[in-house]
Design a protein that fits this description.
binds 2C-methyl-D-erythritol 2,4-cyclodiphosphate; 2-C-methyl-D-erythritol 2,4-cyclodiphosphate synthase activity; binds the ligand Nc1ccn([C@@H]2O[C@H](COP(=O)(O)O)[C@@H](O)[C@H]2O)c(=O)n1; five-stranded mixed beta sheet; about 160 residues; two-stranded antiparallel ribbon; globular; metal-binding; 5 helices; isoprene biosynthesis; alpha+beta; 2-C-methyl-D-erythritol 2,4-cyclodiphosphate synthase
Length: about 160
């Protein structure tokens, strides 16, 4: 009746890249680099969903060696995986996410990200939590070399009596 999954992702900062987190473009002096749009939060969420249904990870479904996914919109990748989740008969119970970034300040953008994640997972915003933390200037995130994200997801079988 329940399936749990967790996801973790990291992307490095680069000059002249947009910063896209949770499907939202965030004003900043640099962005994240990747084969795709490097949306570090949506990648962690996609991995959590894949983990919950026992389907490996994002790179197995969308290889970074495949030109088809060059500059891919990570929201579309997540939507594709979410269709599989729904086909297996599951819906979102809840999801809790953490963005690990020294900068920029995420607080002004959290509600917009939360709304976008809820929309992608066909859920109510009350089922989605997004938070942020610095690492107190320690490590690669603290040195502002990149951003990391974590996601923990609970899927519930549709129509299950809880
Ligand atoms: N990129 C970030 C990081 C943190 N926040 C908010 O600040 C609070 C304090 O951060 P600590 O790392 O000192 O725990 C945190 O709880 C977040 O609300 C942020 O907005 N953006
Ligand atoms: C999303 C994919 C595919 O474009 O590329 P990246 O943006 O490099 O992201 P990553 O989190 O390394 O893993 C999955 C990739 O295959």
């Amino acid at each position: 009746m329940f399936r749990i999954g967790q996801g973790y992702d990291v992307h490095a900062f680069a000059e002249e890249r947009p910063l896209i987190i949770g499907g939202v473009t965030i004003p900043h002096d640099k962005g994240l680099i990747g084969h795709s749009d490097a949306d570090v939060l949506l990648h962690a969420i996609t991995d959590a969903a894949l983990g919950a249904i026992g389907e490996g990870d994002i790179g197995r479904h969308f290889p970074d060696t495949d030109a088809a996914f060059k500059d891919a919109d990570s929201a579309k990748l997540l939507e594709e995986i979410w269709k599989v989740v729904e086909e297996r008969g599951y819906e979102l119970g809840n999801i809790d996410c953490t963005i690990i970034a020294q900068r920029p300040k995420m607080a002004p953008h959290i509600e917009e990200i939360r709304g976008r994640v809820a929309q992608l997972l066909k859920a109510d915003v009350s089922q989605v939590n997004v938070k942020a933390t610095t690492t107190e200037k320690l490590g690669f995130t603290g040195r502002e070399e990149g951003i990391a994200s974590l996601a923990s997801i609970l899927l519930v079988k549709k129509g299950a009596a809880l």
